[in-house]
Amino acid sequence: MAFRKSAIAATLGTLAAATLALxxxxxxxxxxxxxxxxxEIAPGDISEDTMREVTRVLASDAFEGRMPGxxxxxxxxxxxxxxxxxxxxxxxxxxxxxxxxxxxxxTGANHAPLTITGGKTPLSFSFAKDWVGVTFRxxxxxxxxxxxxxxxxxxxxxxxKGWNDYAGLDVKGKTVIILVNDPDWQSAxxxxxxxxxxxTYYGRWTYKYEEAARQGAAAALIIHDTQPASYGWNVxxxxxxGPQAHPQYxxxxxxxxxxxxxxxxxxxxxxxxxxxxxxxxxxxAAQQKGFKAVPLGLKLATSFDNTNRKFMSHNVIxxxxxxxxxxxxxxxxxxxxxxxxCTPAPDGDDICNGAVDNATGTAALVALAEAHAKAGAPxxxxxFLAVTAEESGLLGSAWxxxxxxxxxxxxxxxxxxxxxxxxxPSKDMTAVxxxxxxxxAFLMAALKxxxxxxxxxxxxxxxxxxxxxxxxMAKRGVPMLYLDGGEDLxxxxxxxxxxxxxxxxxxxxxxxxxxxxxxxxxxxxxxxxQLYFRIGRSLAMSTSWPNWNEGxxxxxxxxxxxxxSKKGC
Length: 569
Known about the structure:
It is built from 16 helices and 21 strands. By secondary structure, the chain is an alpha/beta fold.
């Protein structure tokens, strides 16, 4: 989970104002909502006892932090199958509840300095302090020598926007130097070629590495800058210097660079200066449409050893078949995994139990499955997908997205549940990445039915929409909602909500003290689950196929998927 409850946005006074804020256009409510079939849904019979008990069990020490590939995984799978079966679901993968997810863990070691030659003076940078680099190739040693370096601006190739930083450029075997975020990230508004200050997928490091690999680059280094990255160098250092996991690619391997990594901003400035260039001036140039990449006349070299470990993990899938359109699917996702054993707390506790993150979201899958089964089969099928290895980089959901059990073109859309901060009820619900798809209209209808309003994403520039499991489906065209708990608590308002979020982040997030508390007040979580129930069931009872909004980066992917499909959208 990428914890995001750090900034508190002002709530919107009315539902109409919230809709406009989400949509970014005056005709959203009139043109989007009126064109969709959004059935009214009665409240669901959702069990608080189920939420409490499933969270308690999954977060117990007996599950050892639910690390993929461990005894904790074995216990988690058995328990979820038992609960899914008791809830009234059917196995989601033929006669099996499981989907195998083959994983590869690569640990780099013995990193040579990153050396740069060909400029005014030779440069040498220390691993972790000045740069980081990893490989996703299954090789015992990574060695790059004499790789020509090219500054490619933001490293974006977006035909639908008429933007290509690689235009007329051959980077095969070369090292590309890339800026983080989008060209218009400094905008104060949500308008611009890349949605202004709201990060698009083109701004995420995952995209930049993928595009560099598609272009044939040997290595891709992103220049770290705290503000547009939304985290400091300490996060890069801690995240990129240990074991790195990814699916076992086999014959389905996508294009891969030899090395992906980051350059500290001071290191990048020195590299560009050695080439007679200025980082600030190049950045300004790269923010303009039509920017041309700049060969630097430098050569890069480094090497490191790799230890590879293969293991099998699993997604858990249950389905409630639809009564009229069983081959049309509405998806619910949550990740079951956490960190296993981790850095001990002062009292010696070294189990990262992951009660909030994400035993609560996994429990919500079970509780919602029970409620939908009690309400009877809807028109379309409801899929409940508990994915593995989210904490390792959305790997379980990525595997499902690449190997879907239910065709993505026949998947109407869905919701993702990643950590419920257990608190009292709130007046609002936070929409992360709102304004991207017509699913907003289903959200607004559910909010209206429950007498609540929406709080827009307080930090759209951080790109939180691209950091949880729904993204693995979104990038393949399936419209997905990502919601966060309310921040305007009925008791205590926004100050109380901010205090609760800060306490969790400072004292429990990704640590041994994210533990189940029998004294938790579940009222707010249960109110949020009613929203998820209404949204999921409304999609499952609807005849509409909501799409991404015009201009969204995933719209063309969905349109192409629909054009190729004989069923579904």
